[in-house]
Amino acid sequence: RKRMSGAALGIEIVVVFFLALFLLHRYGDFRKQQRMVLFGTLLAWYLCFLIVFILPLDVSTTIYRQCKKDNEERMAMLAVTAEFSNQTAANSSVLPTKSSPKVCYKPWSYIPDGIMPVFWRVVYWTSQCLTWLLLPFMQSYARSGGFSITGKIKTALIENAIYYGTYLLIFGSLLIYVAVHPQWQLSWYELQTIGITAANTWGLFLLVLLLGYGLVEIPRSYWNASRRGHLLLKTYFKAAKLMTEKADAEENLEDIMEEVRKVSESIKYNHPLRKYVDTILRKCPVDYQEKMGRNMDDYEDFDDKQNTYPSERSLEKLHKQVIYAVQRHNRTRVQWQILLDQALHLEDVAKNETSSTHQFVHSFAPAEPPSWFSRYVYTPTVEWYWECLLKQWFYRLLAVVLSLFSVAVVWSECTFFSTRPVLSLFAVFIQLAEKDYNYLYIEMACFITIFFLCTCVYSTVFRIRVFNYYYLASHHQTDAYSLQFSGMYVTSILIVANLQAFLPFDPAPLLKLSWSDPHGLCHLTPAEGADSLYFCDLGTRCLNLLGFQQFMGENDMTSDLIDEGKELIRREKRKRQRVEDGENRRREWKERYGNQRDDYVTRNRNTHSELKETNYGDTMNASANRQARYSRPSNRSGDRDRIELLQDAEPLDFNAEMLSDDPLESESGRHAGGRYLSMSSSRSRIFDDV
C-alpha cells in the first residue's frame, strides 16, 4: 500500500509536468525564446497545476489522520473512565457508558507523515520568490535591448531597484510609524505575519476579480458558442478589430525598418558599433534583411569628423523596438489566419445546415492530407451530424451544468461560516462520504470542485489583455514579457486560490490540512459581488464607454464593425478562391499535357542516339552529308524543347481550352494553340480574373 500511495503521488507529479510543458509549448516558442524565461514560466505554471492534483490527496490523508486522532482520544477517555469506574463501583450502581473506537480505513493514496508539510512549504516560498524576485527580474531582462548579458542584467537590476524602491519607501514609512508608536510593539514573527498577509491580500484582490469573471463567463461562453449566428457575427467583429491592429503593426514595422535602414547606411563595416547594427539586422524579417543588404555599400570607410553616429544607448532602444515590432507583426499575421479559418468554418456550417445529403462540404480543401481519423472515424457524415446537429445541443447542456455548478459554488461560499446547520452543498456531500470512508469519492469530489474553481481563475488569466502590454496568444506567438507576467499572476494567487477552493467545503479540514501550516489562514471574502458585476456586463459597458470597442448587440459601432469584418472575410475568401483556381488550372495542365511531354523527350533521345550510332561507322564526307541531311529535324527537336519549357510556365489568365492537340502541327514549329484572354476577341471574358 505504501508503494501504491507513492506511485499515485509520483504519477500525478509527472502528468502535471507534461501538462504544463504542453501549455508552454502552445503559447511560447522553444526555439527562439531564452531558456531562463521558459524555465521560470514553466515552474510557475507547474506549481499552480500541481496543487490542483495534490490537494485531494491531502484531504483524504487528513481525514484518515483525524480518525486516528479521534480514536486515540477515545481510548484515553476509556482508560480514564475505567479507572473512575473501579474507584466508584462500590459506592454507585450506575456505571458510565463506554464508547467503542471507530474503525479507520487507510486510503489507497495515503501520504506518509512529514512529506506534505515540507512539500507545501517548498511550494509556498518558491511561489513567493517567483512572484516578487525571479519573474520581475526576468521580465526586465527579456525586455531589455542590451547586446550582452552584462548589459541586460544591469538594465534589469536598475529597473527592479526603482520598482521595489518605491515599495520599500512606503513600507519603511509605515514601519517607522509603528516603531515610534508607544502602544505597538512588533516582534520578528509579527512582521513576518504582516508581510505574508500583505502578499495574500494582493492575491485575494486578484482572485475576487478573476474568479468572479470566470464563474460567469465560462458558462456564458459555451451558451453563446451554441448560437451559431451570434458566434459568426462576433467573429466578423473580431476580424474588423484584428485587421486594424494588423495594419497598425505593419505600419509600425515599416517605420522601425526605415530607421534601421538609415542606421545601417550610416554605420559602415569598420565602425566600432557595427557589430550592434548586425545584431539588430538579424532580428529583422528576412525580406527586410535582403533589401538592406542590397542597398548597403560596405567598402566605404566612415569618417568621424563629417557624420554624426547614434550612441550605444540609442541602438539598445532601437534593438528593443525592433524585437517588439517584429513580434507584434508576426502575432497579428498568425492570428488573422486563425480567425479567417474560424470565420470560413462557421460560414460552411451555416451553408451545410440545409444540406439534404447530410455530408459536410468545405469551401476549401484542407492544406494537409486527411489523417486516418478523418478517413475512417470523423467522416463527412459524422462531421455533418456533429457540426450541424449535436454540437449546439451539447454546448447548451454543458452551459446549463456549468451554470448550476457556479450557483452552487457561490451559495457554498456565502454559507461557508455556517457550521450548524451545514448549508454548503459540497460540505454535505463530503460529510456523507466521510461516514463511509469512501476516499475515492472524496478525492474525486474535491478534484472536480477545485479543478472548476481553478479553471475559472486561470482561464481568465489566459484570456485577459492589457492593451499590447500583456497578451497571451496561442500558436507560439506570446512574447517573453507576457509569459513572465502570466507566471507572476498565477503564482501571486497560487495559495489564496486554493484557500478559496476550500470555501465550499467544511471549515474543519481547512484548519487541519498540511498546507495551512506554512502561511497561516487569512479571512477570505466570497466572490459573489464580482459575479453580479460580470453577470450584468458592467465591465463590457464601461470599456465601451471609454472608447474600447466591445461586442454589444444593440450598438451602431458594433454593427459597423460587423459589416466591415464581413467584407474583409469576403475579400479574403475571394483571394483564396483565386489561388485555389490557379492551382487547379496548373494541375489540370500537367495532367493533360504531361504525357505528351514525356513522349517528346523520349522521341528526342531516340533521335540523338540514332544519330550517334550512324555517325560512328562512316567517313568524314558521309558524316558531313548526313549531318546536313538531319539538320532540320535537330532544329525541330530544339523547337520542341522550347515548347516544353513554355508549357511548364502556364500563365494565370491563359485559356487552355483553345490549345490544339498537336503542338507541332505547323511547319515552322511555332506554338499555335494557346491564347491569352487580353488578346482574345471575346470581350465578355476580358475581366473574368480582375
From TrEMBL:
| First-listed, main subcellular location of the protein, grouped into a coarse class | membrane
Q: List the GO cellular component terms.
A: membrane
Q: Does the keyword Transmembrane helix apply?
A: yes
Q: Which residues cross the membrane?
A: 6-24, 36-55, 161-180, 200-218, 393-411, 440-461, 481-503
According to its UniProt entry, the protein's GO biological process terms are:
adrenergic receptor signaling pathway
Query: What's in the keyword line of the UniProt record?
Result: Coiled coil, Membrane, Transmembrane, Transmembrane helix
Q: Region labeled Disordered — which residues?
A: 599-640, 660-690
Family the UniProt entry places it in: Belongs to the LIMR family.
Write out the annotated subcellular location: Membrane
Name by which UniProt lists this protein: LMBR1 domain-containing protein 2-B-like
Which residues are in coiled coils? 239-266
Q: Which InterPro entries match?
A: GPCR-associated_LMBR1 (IPR051584), LMBR1-like_membr_prot (IPR006876)
Keyword Flavoprotein among record annotations: no
The region annotated as signal peptide is none
Q: How does it sit in the membrane?
A: Multi-pass membrane protein
**Where does this protein have compositionally biased stretches of type Basic and acidic residues?**
599-615
